[in-house]
Structure formats: structure tokens, C-alpha cells
Design brief:
With 117 residues, the protein is mostly beta strands. The protein is built from no helices and eleven strands. It is 0% helix and 54% strand.
């Protein structure tokens, strides 16, 4: 039923940009808070950003504030993450997740982002 599919990852040089997408299905997308979460090699999960399901309010981790922008297209059931000024520390698998922080009930398969010269 519920499915989240991330795409858009790849290899980029430091200072470059990428746009990630998460296609959602199986639930009323517009009513739920959506999140981006990442996991760097050998490290734990790090929450990155969230988009409120009933407003334009967004939230960001300090590590990405000013560089990343989360957005959504409810008509297309799609979540986006625009990433600018990428740094090697941004290298990670990026996941989209449905729900409130620390209580995510559905996850995508993840998409790899590698920042390297």
C-alpha cells in the first residue's frame, strides 16, 4: 500500500548541487508531515529537514540550514530536497520518511549522494 521511492542522487563535486525527489503513494500525502533523513558511512541516522503537512512551515538541521531547501508538490504526491553548496560531509544515503520526528512509520529505500573531487 504505502510506498516511498527516492531518486536524484549521484556523484557531485564540492560546491555543486543536486535535487532529490521522493514519490509517494498509498496515503493522503497532503495531510502528513514529510521528512528527509540521512545516514553517512559508519554513522547513525541524522534528521535533515521536515515539511509540515498542512502549512508551508519547514524545519532544518543546523548542518544544512541555508544550503538545503525542502519542498513538496501535493498534486504530484512528491517531496523534494534541493541541495546547494554541497560538502564532503554531506555524503550519505538520503531517505524520505513519513510522520513526526522520532516516530516515522514509513521509509523509502534511500538514494546515495556522494560529494567528492
Amino acid at each position: 500500500q504505502v510506498q516511498l521511492v527516492e531518486s536524484g542522487g549521484g556523484l557531485v563535486q564540492p560546491g555543486g548541487s543536486l535535487r532529490l525527489s521522493c514519490a509517494a503513494s498509498g496515503f493522503t500525502f497532503s495531510t502528513f508531515r514529510m521528512n528527509w533523513v540521512r545516514q553517512a558511512p559508519g554513522k547513525g541516522l541524522e534528521w535533515v529537514a521536515a515539511s509540515n503537512g498542512a502549512s508551508s512551515i519547514t524545519y532544518y538541521a543546523d548542518s544544512v540550514k541555508g544550503r538545503f531547501t525542502i519542498s513538496r508538490d501535493d498534486a504530484k504526491n512528491t517531496l523534494y530536497l534541493e541541495m546547494n553548496s554541497l560538502q564532503p560531509d554531506d555524503t550519505a544515503v538520503y531517505y524520505c520518511a513519513k510522520g513526526v520526528y522520532a516516530s516515522f512509520d514509513y521509509w523509502g529505500q534511500g538514494t546515495q549522494v556522494t560529494v567528492s573531487s
